[in-house]
Amino acid sequence: MTCDETKLLLAEYWSQLLGEAEELAFEAHIAGCDPCRMEAERLGAMWKNLALIPGSSREFEPGPNLRARFYETLGAYRQGLESAPRRSVRDRILALWPKRPEWQMAAGFALLVIGLGLGYEMRPGGLVPIANHDTGQGTELSQLRGEVSSMRQMVALSLMQQQSAGERLRGVSYAYQVPASDTQVLSALLTAVNQDESVGVRLSAVDALHAFGASPVTREAIIQSIPKQDAPLVQIRLIDLLVDLREKEAVPELETLVRDETKNESVREYAKAAIGKLQ
Hints:
The protein has helices at 3-8, 10-14, 20-32, 34-51, 66-83, 89-96, 101-121, 135-159, 165-175, 183-195, 199-208, 216-225, 232-244, 251-259, 265-278.
């Protein structure tokens, strides 16, 4: 087993997901390779400490009455379907139309784009390369692209303000589709990273910030976000992002984090390793 193969299996090894043969090969390699052994020990210490974080790995066992309640619910659902009046085709189509205003706007605009595309396609000669279009048609296409971008921005900002964590996660996913120069969406993502009550939303927002990383303003905001976090997983994800962006200006803040004994030990170790990669 090579060093590269060993590094790919580190997480699975500490999660006890390796087969017997792979585990033996893994342990044989780290026994004779000092760099791989040190990396395995570092990750192992972090893995064990993360397991101590409340709610990080605890699973809930289903109650003994779960199966009975499931079949009772299923029976009631079937009975309701049988007794419900049959709906017309029109009612079925209307039922598919989204109820939330932001989704109605998105669906309406999608239909508009499809209609325009079909209209161009049905013109005599069909679509021709943009380079051959006259100035007016090129301007129309440019305006259409701008309107699509504005719609994505509006949907992203609207969803990230919702009360449901699931809706906010959808808003973060729309942020991937807006230009990296969009300061409104960037501001909303930074607010989510620093203030959202859901750790899952914060983690997703950190990932979405990667597309905005070329901006010095974004990099500085990411550095300032690290001490504001109360979730070790979010801090680790922010540190990973700074390493990916090769942001050497983060070293002083990371050194402060390493010296702060009130912070999570695994986070401090992770920050120490990041400093070595950035220097």
